[in-house]
Amino acid sequence: MSRPQPIPASALPEAAFRAPFRIRFGDCDPAGILFFPNWFVMANAAMEDLFRQRLGIDFHEMHAGRGVGTGFVHAAGTFMRPGTMGDEVLLTPIIRRVGNASYAIDLHIHRGEEELARLDLVTATTQLATRTSTPVPPDLRAALLRYQAECGPVAGQEIPA
To answer: Which Gene3D superfamilies match (predicted)?
Structure first.
């Protein structure tokens, strides 16, 4: 497996959603460097924002009202440069695949043009009452596929088969 090469922020699709975050004191270790699990906390927040602001689906209502969960079942990261206290970063989720009961995301994290990290995330949909897998709801599937089509491919990045 080859290590992803950093790509500049400008290589991401113009139509892609971007969630801004500021790295705060409490996000960092004593050296002032972002403590790596916090990238995943930010990733989940970015996905909540994507749902509401771009997909038109209320993330909280889907969970609390509809009883459909969306949890990461795979989360891996490639860390290219450290994020530091005070940095303004953009998290850009790109939908890689929409399956029957899951969807895969490449989440690019940039400070300016510099890619700091890239997260490989797979989210499964579940019935929260039974904690069992369930198909991606039709409205979410349609919204994810629409967003994926609007974004198109990422320049300079291989698309997995």
So the answer is: Hotdog Thioesterase
Helix (H, G, I), strand (E, B) or coil at 6: coil
Those residues whose C-beta lies under 8 Å from the C-beta of residue 62, and which sit 6 or more positions away, are 51, 68, 70, 137, 140
Question: Whole-prediction pTM value?
Answer: 0.92
Instruction: Specify whether domain 22-151 bears CATH 3.10.129.10.
Output: yes
Q: Please, are residues 77 and 103 in contact by the beta-carbon 8 Å criterion?
A: no
Q: What is the pLDDT of residues 41-88, one digit of tens each?
A: 999 999 999 999 999 999 999 999 999 999 999 999 999 999 999 999
Extents of the domains making up the chain: 22-151
Whole-number Å distance between alpha carbons of 116 and 110: 5
**Which residues are within 8 A (CB) of 61 and not within 5 positions of it... i.e. 6 or more apart?**
none
- Phi–psi pair at 71, nearest 5 degrees: -115, 150
Is residue 53 within 8 A of residue 22, CB to CB? The reply is: no
Q: Could you give the CA distance from residue 43 to residue 27 in angstroms, rounded to a whole number?
A: 13
Direct distance between the N- and C-terminal alpha carbons of the chain, in angstroms, rounded to an integer: 14
